Amino acid sequence: GPPGDAAYLDGLNPEQRAAVETLDGPVLVLAGAGTGKTRALTCRVAHLLRTGRARPNEIFAVTFTNKAAREMKERVGALVGGAVEGMPWLGTFHALCAKLLRRHAELAGLKPNFTILDTDDQLRLLKQLIAAENIDEKRWPPRMLAGLIDRWKNRGWTPANLPADEAAAFGGKGGRLYADYQERLRTLNAADFGDLLVHVLTIFQAHPEVLATWRGRLRYILVDEYQDTNVAQYLLLRLLAAEHRNICCVGDDDQSIYGWRGAEVGNILRFEQDFPGAAVIRLERNYRSTPHILAVASEVIAANERRLGKTLWTDETEGEKVRLIGHWDGEEEARWIGEEIEALTRGTRGMEPVSPEGIAILVRASFQMRAFEDRFLNIGLPYRVIGGPRFYERLEIRDAMAYFRLAVSPDDGLAFERVMNRPKRGLGEKAAQSVNLIARERGLTLVDAARALVAEGGLTARARGALGRLLEAIDRWHEAVRAGADHVALAETILDESGYVDHWRNDRAPDSAGRVENLKELVKALEQFENLQGFLEHVALVMDNEQEDGAAKVSIMTLHAAKGLEFPVVFLPGWEDGLFPSQRSMDENGLAGLEEERRLAYVGLTRARRLAVVSFAANRAVFGRWQSALPSRFIDEMPPEHVEVLTPPGLHGGPRGRAAVAGGRGAAGADGRLRAIEGLAGVVRGSELEERAARAGAYDSPGWRRMQARRAAPSAAPVVI
Ligand code: ATP
Ligand code: MG
After folding, report:
1. 581 preceded by cis ω (within 30°)?
2. Which residues hold ATP (predicted)?
3. Which of 15, 118, 180, 225 is catalytic?
4. Backbone angles phi and psi of 551, in degrees to 5
């Protein structure tokens, strides 16, 4: 048994304990949201360490985000009393595979200092390849090819084992372009995100001795959010675990929301086949949410046909109903949420005051964020955007990073291309073409081609001089990296000597000052890292960003990014048919698409601990076009007895000649909900009003009738879903 001070076991329920203490052989924990899967997994790590079963470097633990990895590391440290040094193999699939690949890069035809490409670089590369094939880029966009290649990599297909019908994609040239692309990546000493996994998988498959080494070292495997692993990840896990079979996966089929990215729920079902005799553990007690939130989430997800089905219950009895409110448009929705957040932080909404940090806004589509960002900037409400267009994606940051990449590996051709003429140094299109031509003709890297061009007196004297100076500078920076110079000072030098910061300082555009600030921030961020390479790797991997600083902030993120997280208060705006569920996912994937959207609704609702607020707008500008919208069908599926309908203050008359609405805050149940929708209809004029009346039929849906029938019979705990 564990040493006497294993207090971390005491707080667990019996099923969780089983998940923690069943250390030998395969374990699958299959359970609903908030039942303590992640907590059990964390305790399992602690338990492995505490009982001496494994050393920190023998545990291979996969989380879905970098943030989750950091949190798990911290918690394990707290549980075992800070004795954890390292845990080098705790991270996302990508981070772990990047690490493995650095050790064996040469087996994939790369050097250990290979660059991890971002989407932008990838697209530029594909664009070049498509152009070289004389394919019409308008008909066959690079983005489409990128999507295909990504899909193939998610399935573990290399150019060598790509099925013929897949290779025939992209006008018959998909397979060839894929092979060309991989070849180019190799000459650039680069890997894209998908490669991290596929290369490692291929190495393990082709080099049994390498696989044997890692099987011996990584003796305990743990995977969180298992429902969202793709085939390549699954194959990798199976290879690593085949011998010792000490693998523990936790997941929830109802939270599988990355089907569009190649995740396969089937992996859950396959687990028991691949690991016969696996212990399957179900957790049914929810520790996160109030009964109202749980009832609403459970009822919504119950509308899905394809699910394993689970029981969920909670001991809690108190709590707020899920709040529902309709607005005129997205701006008003943002304004109202801003005010509501201020009220919640003051504690004037019938609840204890909530810290901004405990509040999240979860959107379906990232364009929705803009309204909130604008609004919050306006009222001075601190917020952070998680997973949206973010700091490291800004132009000036990407340019600076390209310089850093060159300093680390001067043969990074894409980085060189990017900064060759940034700031402008007289090396325009023509110079770039000359360099490219020499590179192609002589099979050189771009940087070497540029060197040749300078040595042989190509270009105009002025351009040659500028190019020569740039190359010298790159050599100098690289030398400094190799000599182990202080990387923060070096970064400053690079931004200085390249003329890049000055270029923005002298720029008169209104946003230039902000860019200089950002560059400063970038250098500051470097301080937390040991060297430039570590930082570059971090940025490449941490694109699901989280910038840290002291102030308590409201979080804005997509529903996808919210997986695994929890907040006391969650706002769920934009519940309109077409936006959520998204029209596109329904068009592309029919019922399966709709069911994945519904799982997303379930994920969103179950992030909330104390309060969930769902809202919709009658009018929404989507990509600049106004559309009038119907409340989401998921709203129809919410059980009225657990919902409180609010009436926005704006509806009581206003600039648009709004009609006064009967009812208001406190109106509960189906009648209240209908009132809110009717109230909204009151603000819609003329023909729109008629249209809405016609749509009222929608509220006579089977879901609605089912709900009303159920209203008569009060639901008893546990809520069975
Ligand atoms: P999700 O499916 O959303 O990822 P999960 O199953 O991983 O959820 P956790 O995040 O591990 O759930 O736990 C949800 C909440 O319940 C957390 O706040 C956690 O600390 C708490 N919790 C879990 N188990 C227990 C327990 N045995 N006693 C008290 N609180 C618990
Ligand atoms: Mg979890």
Report:
1. yes
2. 31-38
3. 225
4. -60, 145
